Amino acid sequence: MILELDCGNSFIKWRLLNASMASVGWGVVDNDEALVDVIRLRSVGLSQCRLVSVRSDDETAALVATLENTFAVTCSVVSPARELGGVTNGYEQFERLGLDRWVAMVGAYSLAQRACLVIDLGTAVTSDFVGADGQHLGGFICPGVPLMRTQLRTHTRRTRYDALEASLALKDVAPGRSTAEAVERGCVLMLQGFVSGQIAMAADLWQQDFDVFLTGGDAALVTSVAPSARVVPDLVFIGLAIACPTV
Ligand SMILES: Nc1ncnc2c1ncn2[C@@H]1O[C@H](COP(=O)(O)OP(=O)(O)OP(=O)(O)O)[C@@H](O)[C@H]1O
Ligand SMILES: CC(C)(CO)[C@@H](O)C(=O)NCCC(=O)O
Ligand SMILES: [K+]
C-alpha cells in the first residue's frame, strides 16, 4: 500500500492506495499526531509514502521522520523543479512556487493535454495558467473563505454569529438579512467573482481552447459560475503520483 499526503497550512489530506493504485481510504486531519493515529489503524502492508507539503522545511522533515520511524516506510517528498510532466514552472524563482500549486497543475496538464486554468479553493485560493505547450504563465493567490471570515471576525466587533446560523446562511445568495447571511454570502460571492474573472482572463488568452479545473474543499461553492469546469478533488494527488512515481 502507498500512503499519499497533501500537507497544507491548515489540514493534512491523506489517501491510501492498494497495489492496483485504487484508493482504499482517505481523510482529512489537522495535525501530525492525528495523522499517525488514523494511519496506525490501517498501516498493515504499507510499503511507501509520498507527500507534497507547503509547510516549512523543518515541519515537513519532522513529519517525514515520524512516518519513517513509526511505519518503517520511506517517504518521497516533492521538491521544486523547473520542469515536470511537460509543464514548465513560470516563476522567476521557481523554488518559491507553492508545491501544492505545482503538482496540481502538473496533474491538470496530464489530464487535459491542452491549455488549462487550475483553481484550488482551500484556506487560500490559488489560480494558475498553463498554456497548451505546458508553459506556466503564472497565477494568483488570494484568501479563501476561512481566511476572509476570520479576518472579518478579528478586525470588527459586531460580525459574530454561530455555526448553526452559518450553516443555514448558504441556502441561496440573495442579499443577507442577518449578519451570518451577509458575511457567508458575501464571502461566497467574492469567490465566485474571482473565479469568473479568472475564466474571462483565460478566454482572453486562449479563446475556447482550454480546460478549467477546480479542486480544494470549497470547489463546490463556485461550480455555478464555472459550469463546464472539471471538478477534480484529488488533483494534487494525481500530480503527486507524477512527481513521485512508485519505486
Ligand atoms: N472534511 C473537511 N475538512 C476540512 N475542510 C473541509 C472539509 N470539507 C470541506 N472543507 C472546506 O474546505 C476548505 C478547506 O479546503 P482544503 O481542505 O482544500 O484546505 P487547504 O487549502 O488544503 O488548506 P491547507 O492546504 O491550507 O491546509 C474549508 O473552507 C472547508 O470549508
Ligand atoms: C499559496 C499557498 C499557501 C496555497 O496553499 C501555497 O501554495 C504556498 O505557500 N505558496 C508559496 C508562495 C507562492 O506560491 O508564490
Ligand atoms: K491547498
Automatic annotation (TrEMBL):
Pfam families in alphabetical order: Pan_kinase
Domain of life: Bacteria
InterPro entries membership: ATPase_NBD (IPR043129), Type_III_PanK (IPR004619)
GO molecular function, one term: pantothenate kinase activity
Keyword Cytoplasm in annotation: yes
Residues that hold K(+) according to the record: D120
Enzyme class at the top of the EC tree: transferase
List of catalytic residues: D100 (proton acceptor)
Binding site for substrate: Y91, G98, L99, D100, R101, T179
Chemical reaction(s) catalysed: (R)-pantothenate + ATP = (R)-4'-phosphopantothenate + ADP + H(+)
Binding note for cofactor: A monovalent cation. Ammonium or potassium.
EC number(s) stated in the UniProt entry for this protein: 2.7.1.33
Binding site residues for ATP: D6, C7, G8, N9, S10, F11, I12, K13, T123
Swiss-Prot/TrEMBL keywords: ATP-binding, Coenzyme A biosynthesis, Cytoplasm, Kinase, Metal-binding, Nucleotide-binding, Potassium, Transferase
Cofactor(s) required, per the database record: K(+); NH4(+)
Localization terms from the record: Cytoplasm
Pathway: Cofactor biosynthesis; coenzyme A biosynthesis; CoA from (R)-pantothenate: step 1/5
PANTHER family linked to this entry: TYPE III PANTOTHENATE KINASE
Family statement: Belongs to the type III pantothenate kinase family.
Subunit comment: Homodimer.
Its biological purpose: Catalyzes the phosphorylation of pantothenate (Pan), the first step in CoA biosynthesis.
UniProt-recorded name of the protein: Type III pantothenate kinase
Organism of provenance: Ectopseudomonas mendocina (Pseudomonas mendocina)
